[in-house]
Amino acid sequence: MERACPGRPCPEAEEGSGARILLVEDDRAVAEMYRLKLRRDGFAVQIAEDGDRAIDLARRQPPDLVLLDVRLPKRDGLQVLAAMRRDPPMSEVPIVVLSNYSEDLIVQRCLEGGATDYLVKAHTTPEMLSACLRRWLHGDGGRAGAERAGAHVRAPGVLPPGH
Question: Does the global pTM surpass 0.85?
Answer without folding.
Answer: no
